[in-house]
């Protein structure tokens, strides 16, 4: 099953990447083409402006003057030679002082031949600005047809057309005006716009270095017509389809991964719980091994005393022997109580516990005994601490054990300081510090082992049980590094849902 899930994840991941990659390629298709066309237009405009400097600059000296047909053809010839190197382009000139266009051509469209020198009447009819014979032509015949467009170009664009196509003329005029005032040395100005049913790119450049320039050139490429726009729309729909497929596949992959992560989290939590139970049983096994020894000694003492009472009822039943039996029973009772605390650790009902209140109650409980020993109790409890989640009785027993150990370390007096504070990771820390002899370095690693004790009357279960209870609550009990006299034990417990 795990192998099947892995295969499904890999397939969905690869499919989503493929869909998104296809969408990106389709989306960049048009933009990449347009960038290449814009660079080609800049080069064409710059070359046309440089080539036509002498020809175009001399035609714009007189404001309001309209270029003659012969001048228009000369400019068109210059534009035709340059644009022959740039297929599918249109271009021409703008004369700023007369606000007129001239020499508009389209690459690949041949010009109509100029009239022969002796055909003056025909020349005058086609070029009213030519000076020549004023007599009217009396010959009658069919009107001359306008030249047919070639290569799909506008009619007459190679036969002396002056202006750009009508729909584009206003925007090209405005762009040419911007070019003639642009700073000398600037690259040609390129703009892409939608005009009517077409999308066009236009480059304009000033002629010469004079500013404002007397003339400008314009070069235009039709990026798309209605048919191309329809193809682009289909390509856009296809790209959007691939994008949607990629997103849906990515969501499916995320769903699969989230499900796998949740299953893995539950599996890890179950394994962690089993591990904690196994550790708990292992510690319990070690405890039981020590319990046999701890229980046997008091039972032996009780048995010996009772047997002595049976043999010598009058002489042996003294107050001292009775006190010895009671002391042994108390020792057994304490041992059983600690074992029960250990067995119940982690199984009590959890509820919010005010650690400051537990600490204050514990300190008040031992204050009378501390006064008799000459021990001064001080507290530094941080205000506004959030509650910890746990069993109040078990946590109180841990705090009492730490405080009792500190008092036992100072039989001739000293100072006990209990402090609470918030620490990183969402934990509350309670420390109990004493001014006793401290813990020898060679014992620091063994004091938390079950049945380890330095006192003759100790069970050796106190610190071991404290650590076990704290860990069952998601915290820990540690011995702070030695920093002077005494010892400092730290109890850390999580707030809310924190765990260690």
UniProtKB/TrEMBL annotation:
Keywords: ATP-binding, Kinase, Membrane, Nucleotide-binding, Phosphoprotein, Signal, Transferase, Transmembrane, Transmembrane helix, Two-component regulatory system. Residues 1-21 form the signal peptide. PROSITE patterns: HIS_KIN. The chain crosses the membrane at residues 238-258. It is an enzyme of class 2 (transferase). Residues 117-151 have a biased composition (Basic and acidic residues). Residues 290-497 form the Histidine kinase domain. Residues 108-171 are annotated as: Disordered. It catalyses: ATP + protein L-histidine = ADP + protein N-phospho-L-histidine. InterPro entries: HATPase_C_sf, HATPase_dom, His_kinase_dom, HisK_dim/P_dom, HisK_dim/P_sf, Sig_transdc_His_kin-like_C. Its EC number is 2.7.13.3. GO terms for molecular function: ATP binding; phosphorelay sensor kinase activity. The keyword S-adenosyl-L-methionine does not apply. This is histidine kinase. It comes from Frigoriglobus tundricola. The lineage of its organism: Bacteria, Pseudomonadati, Planctomycetota, Planctomycetia, Gemmatales.
């Amino acid at each position: 099953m795990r192998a099947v899930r892995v295969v499904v994840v890999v397939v969905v991941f690869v499919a989503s990447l493929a869909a998104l990659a296809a969408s990106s390629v389709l989306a960049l298709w048009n933009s990449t083409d347009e960038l290449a066309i814009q660079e080609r237009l800049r080069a064409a405009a710059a070359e046309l402006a440089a080539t036509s400097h002498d020809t175009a600059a001399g035609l714009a000296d007189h404001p309001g003057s309209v270029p003659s047909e012969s001048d228009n053809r000369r400019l068109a010839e210059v534009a035709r030679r340059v644009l022959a190197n740039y297929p599918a382009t249109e271009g021409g000139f703008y004369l700023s002082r007369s606000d007129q266009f001239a020499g508009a051509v389209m690459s690949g469209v041949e010009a109509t031949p100029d009239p022969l020198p002796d055909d003056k009447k025909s020349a005058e009819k086609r070029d009213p600005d030519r000076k020549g014979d004023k007599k009217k032509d009396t010959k009658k015949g069919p009107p001359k047809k306008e030249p047919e467009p070639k290569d799909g170009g506008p009619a007459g664009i190679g036969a002396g057309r002056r202006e750009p196509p009508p729909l584009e003329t206003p925007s090209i005029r405005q762009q040419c005006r911007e070019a003639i005032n642009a700073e000398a040395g600037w690259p040609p100005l390129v703009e892409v716009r939608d005009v009517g049913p077409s999308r066009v790119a236009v480059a304009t450049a000033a002629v010469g270095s004079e500013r404002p320039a007397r003339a400008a050139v314009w070069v235009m490429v039709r990026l798309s017509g209605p048919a191309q726009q329809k193809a682009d729309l289909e390509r856009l729909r296809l790209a959007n389809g691939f994008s949607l497929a990629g997103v849906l596949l990515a969501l499916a992959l995320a769903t699969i991964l989230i499900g796998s992560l949740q299953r893995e989290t539950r599996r890890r939590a179950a394994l962690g719980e089993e591990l904690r139970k196994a550790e708990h049983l292992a510690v319990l096994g070690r405890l039981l091994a020590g319990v046999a020894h701890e229980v046997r000694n008091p039972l032996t003492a009780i048995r010996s005393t009772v047997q002595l009472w049976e043999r010598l009822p009058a002489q042996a039943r003294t107050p001292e022997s009775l006190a010895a039996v009671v002391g042994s029973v108390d020792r057994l009772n304490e041992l059983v109580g600690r074992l029960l605390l250990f067995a119940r650790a982690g199984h009590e009902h959890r509820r919010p516990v005010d650690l400051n209140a537990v600490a204050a109650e514990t300190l008040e409980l031992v204050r009378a005994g501390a006064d008799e020993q000459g021990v001064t109790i001080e507290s530094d409890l941080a205000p506004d601490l959030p509650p910890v989640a746990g069993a109040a009785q078990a946590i109180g027993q841990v705090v009492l054990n730490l405080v009792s150990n500190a008092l036992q370390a100072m039989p001739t007096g000293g100072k006990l300081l209990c402090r609470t504070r918030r620490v990183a990771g969402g934990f509350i820390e309670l420390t109990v510090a004493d001014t006793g002899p401290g813990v020898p370095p060679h014992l620091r690693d063994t004091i938390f082992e079950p049945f380890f004790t330095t006192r003759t009357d100790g069970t050796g279960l106190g610190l071991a049980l404290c650590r076990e209870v704290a860990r069952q609550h998601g915290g820990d009990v540690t011995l702070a590094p030695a920093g002077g006299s005494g010892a400092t034990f730290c109890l850390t417990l999580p707030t809310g849902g924190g765990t260690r």
